[in-house]
Amino acid sequence: MIIGVPKEIKNHEYRVGMVPASVRELINHGHQVIVETNAGIGIGFTDEDYIQVGAEIRDTAAQVFEEADMIVKVKEPQAVERAMLREDQILFTYLHLAPDLPQTEDLVKSGAICIAYETVTDARGGLPLLAPMSEVAGRMSIQAGAQALEKSREGRGMLLGGVPGVEPAKVVVIGGGMVGRNAAQMAVGLGADVTILDRNIDVLRSLNAQFGSQAKVIYSTADALEKHVLEADLVIGGVLIPGAAAPKLVTADHIKAMKPGAAIVDVAIDQGGCIATSKATTHAEPTYIVDDVVHYCVANMPGAVPRTSTFALNNATLPYIIKLANLGYKEALLADQHFLNGLNVMKGQITCKEVAEGFNMEYVDARAALANV
């Protein structure tokens, strides 16, 4: 199989679909890898680094898309990239289709086989290809929130951990999954006053066992969420429903009632956000103000630490890339229901139920769709 790795073109996105070590693994399996020139330059890998492991360099993304049987990316394809997809071509990347109708429509029209990292599951009910970026984004959310609280960013002018004799900032983490757990870990480490809200009793028990008295672990009701959000100096939104748009848990009325200069980091923004007043921003202009509350809503947060993020992502995605290349998409997906859950769009059909329902479009069962190939 010919695997293509284009250079990412989203604003301030420096990650790359495969590092040279991953390319070498694919080539050792007998496959051909073509890489767009300077695709890895943002994390310190030159074209020569890729050539040394056996990759071939192409001058343009158009050449990569034209030649490759499978495209491996990081972020969802932008409009210009979607226009280059062709029928029967495999696209393996983050898609986050739920809040993105134009992308969904373009992928349907392309006839490509589109597999989303974020909806691949595992036997434990986890999301193994989303987890590494959730870890990064969760940890980064506290860094971003700490900066958003600075007066120069129009925040309250607070240090997260305070100092002796001065209270620390109150950090409220909504959602105790991978994002929330990592955000809480960083906030606790900085000495903040941390509260985590979740509705899964097993998750709450696990969080309580991890943090003990270092963080308050609260069952999330409408009343509890309102109380803690209004008391917060910093709110981290980390709620995820796999494949679906994030629920709007923090309302516009909540925002109006928050402390002036408080901050919100909506890590769920790539799935539409869990804060009613959220809108996607970029690393170039990461924040904006609504009702005196600083909003940080960058949709590709891990792109700010691309070297760490790329290696973490490659560690998770490489086995799946090898399966697709060795077996072909049909055999690889049918052999593993968890991998099959990653199939969002195939040959003009939407095979992710949550996406289809969100846009009131026709849904086709993924296994049934593959059986007809």
Automatic annotation (TrEMBL):
Name the record gives this protein: Alanine dehydrogenase
Residues annotated to bind NAD(+): 134, 198, 220, 239-240, 267-270, 298-301
MF terms in GO: alanine dehydrogenase activity; nucleotide binding
Domain Alanine dehydrogenase/pyridine nucleotide transhydrogenase N-terminal: 4-137
InterPro entries: Ala_DH (IPR008141), Ala_DH/PNT_CS2 (IPR008143), AlaDH/PNT_N (IPR007886), AlaDH/PNT_NAD(H)-bd (IPR007698), NAD(P)-bd_dom_sf (IPR036291)
Database matches in Pfam families: AlaDh_PNT_C (PF01262), AlaDh_PNT_N (PF05222)
EC number annotated for this UniProt entry: 1.4.1.1
Encoding gene, per UniProt annotation: ald
Source organism superkingdom: Bacteria
Keywords recorded for this protein, A-Z: NAD, Nucleotide-binding, Oxidoreductase
NCBIfam families listed in its UniProt record: alaDH (TIGR00518)
One GO CC term on file: plasma membrane
Record flagged with keyword Nucleotide-binding: yes
Catalyzed reactions per annotation: L-alanine + NAD(+) + H2O = pyruvate + NH4(+) + NADH + H(+)
